Automatic annotation (TrEMBL):
The keyword DNA damage does not apply. InterPro entries: Amidase_dom, AS_sf, TPR-like_helical_dom_sf, TPR_rpt. It comes from the Eukaryota. One of its GO terms (biological process) is protein import into mitochondrial matrix. This is Amidase domain-containing protein. TPR repeats lie at residues 378-411, 412-445, 446-479. Keywords: TPR repeat. Residues 2-114, 219-343 form the Amidase domain. Coiled coil: none annotated. Pfam families: Amidase, TPR_1.
């Protein structure tokens, strides 16, 4: 189809063996160099396609996406990409990996090229041009990033503010929404504290995605793997064996989750909505890293992939530059079948987004000004915050604690209490930052260590969370919540 419309076929590109990796390496052909960050892996599985576009060897490149295979390398290599809705672009001619998840995707540096490829591959859009669009920011997902909002959420909000046709954006907890609207997912959620319910749902989506992938890969390729016994890289071999040895009596429930999730997102986004979230929750590994792959790394990289993968929704990735020498990109998800709607919006928004990226990179954080402390008034505000907290008015509690901090920013308890309220709201990045400040003021604050541990556990930083819990237990060895958290984290890290 592309060649008939004037595209020139150049060649094939390297990818993880069998499309079964996330780093972009290949035992037989090597690992393509990431043009955006040569010291980092390019991401996989479609590493070669992303690298070819990033290195300006081609205008666009094709790939297949099963569990993030075009979205992850696009993020790591700093290029645009588009994952089409499941089943909208034919996969005839590809070797199926997991037919319920496989989708065609493509990379480009220029949004007009990304759009033009979509015009060729996608069926004609139904309905007229949509005049009013609604963006939904997945605030709980942004909590997983160690990137300031000025470089992510604010960039998009400022960009659409300059463009006609967009309603004021809405902020949601997508994990909690999914937990409430995908009832069959509860069977895959790990037992956890109620405050982590949303994050537990996102982790469960990733689990269902990987289980479905393993089941269908086994159905398609078990005989070939057992007969040929292919030589594969260590990481790939481990994952392929997990798939080939996969057993489950609950296969039907995987497909039920998929159907419920698609309906839930259609109900949320309808024909005019776009969900905005980070592309990945983790950064690419360094090529010379001793530990090439871990389950924790996979969890962070795939934390958000399951939303569009399992629902079959379309997803576009837009790079936003770097932060601390790591790539930043955001993803835009639209309802299944809304591919051309999403591509038009990417093309429409892109110039304004790039302008805001430049402005964000030039921002200098204003110095914090210490105000004269009014200790009595600050203590009164703290007590009001405590009352609001007990009444489960978390946002009101945050306001009272914040006002107390404005009057006295040297009291660790104010920060620690506000962190507890942030945890209840699922605002883990703010909770961690408050605990950091509390510990700067009081190095023996047990509650700050415990709450920072909970915040880090919520965003899958389990190793750092365990360190915090152990610091708390060193100060207070019989702390019951600390002992429970230590056992839970040890189990997760096995």
């Amino acid at each position: 189809m592309l060649r008939k419309q004037g595209g020139t076929y150049v060649g094939s590109t390297v990818m993880d063996e069998l499309g079964f990796g996330v780093t972009g390496g290949n035992l037989h052909y090597g690992t393509p160099i990431n043009p955006a960050s040569p010291s980092l892996f390019p991401g996989g599985s479609c590493s070669g396609s992303a690298v070819a576009v990033s290195a300006q060897l081609v205008d666009f490149a094709l790939g297949t996406d099963t569990t993030g295979d075009v979205r992850i390398p696009a993020c790591f290599c700093g290029v645009l990409c588009f994952k089409s809705s499941h089943g909208v672009v034919s996969t005839l001619g590809t070797i199926p990996n997991s037919q319920s998840l496989d989708a065609i995707g493509w990379f480009a540096r220029d949004p007009s090229v990304l759009h033009r490829v979509g015009d060729v591959l996608l069926p004609a859009a139904t309905g007229g041009l949509i005049q009013t669009k609604q963006l939904f920011f997945a605030d709980d997902c942004f909590q997983l990033l160690k990137v300031p909002n000025e470089k992510t959420i604010n960039v998009i909000e400022n960009a659409i503010h300059t463009l006609p046709g967009y309603q004021p954006p809405k902020h949601i907890n997508i994990g909690q929404y999914i937990s409430s609207h995908v009832p069959s997912l509860k069977d895959f959620c790990e037992p956890t504290m109620k405050m982590l319910e949303g994050m537990s749902a996102l982790k469960a989506l990733s689990t269902v995605m990987l289980l479905l992938h393993r089941y269908e890969f086994k159905t398609n390729h078990e005989d070939w793997v057992n007969t040929v016994k292919p030589k594969l890289g260590l990481d790939i071999s481990t994952r392929v064996l997990q798939a080939v040895n996969f057993t489950s009596d609950n296969i039907k429930s995987l497909y039920i989750v998929r159907n419920e999730l698609r309906a839930a997102l259609k109900n949320l986004l309808k024909d005019t909505g776009i969900l905005v979230l980070p592309t990945t929750a983790g950064y690419p590994l360094k090529r010379n890293a001793k530990q090439r792959f871990s389950s924790g790394f996979e969890d962070r990289i795939c934390a958000f992939a399951g939303i569009a993968t399992l629902s079959g929704c379309c997803q576009a990735v837009i790079p936003l530059g770097n932060h601390d020498d790591h790539p930043i990109s955001l993803s835009f998800v639209a309802a299944h079948g809304s591919d051309k709607f999403l591509l038009r919006n990417v093309l429409y928004m892109y110039s304004s987004i790039r302008e805001q990226v430049v402005l964000a990179s030039q921002l200098v954080t204003a110095p914090v000004i210490n105000r004269d402390a009014d200790f009595g008034a600050a203590e009164l505000l703290k007590e009001k915050g405590n009352s609001a907290f007990k009444g489960r008015q978390w946002s009101k509690a945050v306001e009272f604690y914040s006002d107390a901090i404005k009057l006295n920013d040297t009291n660790a308890t104010y920060y620690c209490n506000r962190a507890a309220a942030y945890l209840e709201l699922g605002r883990y990045k703010q909770a961690e930052a408050d605990c950091d400040q509390a510990l700067l003021l009081d190095k023996k604050n047990v509650k700050a260590y415990l709450r920072r541990g909970i915040a880090r556990e919520a965003v899958l930083n389990n190793q750092e969370a365990l360190q915090d819990i152990r610091r708390a237990l060193a100060l207070e060895p019989q702390n019951k919540s600390g002992l429970l958290a230590e056992r839970r984290l040890q189990k997760k890290l096995r």
